[in-house]
Amino acid sequence: MKKVLILNGHQYYDVVAKGELTQHYIDKANDFFVKNGFEIKHTNIEKGYNVEEECEKFEWADYVLFQYPVYWMSVPWIAKKYFDETFTQGRHYSSDGRSRTDASKLYGSGGLLQGKKYMLSLTYNCPASAFDNKNSLFDGMSLDQAHVAVHKTFQFCGLEPLETYSVHDIFKGDLNLDIELEKFEKVLTKNFL
């Protein structure tokens, strides 16, 4: 049986970020994984966690789905704190990868979670047109390039990326959640089945 850890990286802010949209995606993912026979564990970072248990969850999981809203071009600070606390325990990498005796060993190659995969699922206020556009805020970067720090955090520990999902213009007022959740399920199907 395939095993997946669903990480909820939402952080509550009254009026603008109550967590309903994130929860819709968590619920959709949970239903998808149940329907397809996955064993599932959850962490809702904002509700608290035990660092030792979180380390064990990463070792247990074949896959990680990290669902989070993008705050100021990155993860909410509680999610950054979670990764700092969980990944600095030394259980998910043997070293930074380099070796004094073997110059071919490169920085970032010491991850112990080899063979595991992760998916980012993002909720965004910015339009999708802000990416891959040299005249926009992200200077032509793709969505994944704009989230390089999150990707490299997982990859440092040995995980491999799956296709990223993102929903945009969430405050514009015309978000069709049913259509977006259908798109999300298609990405889940591509990534996990």
UniProtKB/TrEMBL annotation:
Cofactor(s) for this UniProt protein: FAD
Domain of life: Bacteria
Family according to the record: Belongs to the oxidoreductase MdaB family.
Protein name: Flavodoxin-like fold domain-containing protein, putative NAD(P)H (Quinone) dehydrogenase/reductase
UniProt cross-references to InterPro entries, sorted A to Z: Flavodoxin_fold, Flavoprotein-like_sf, NADPH-QR_MdaB
Keywords: FAD, Flavoprotein
Species whose genome carries this gene: Arcobacter suis CECT 7833
UniProt key word Transmembrane helix: no
Annotated Pfam families: Flavodoxin_2 (PF02525)
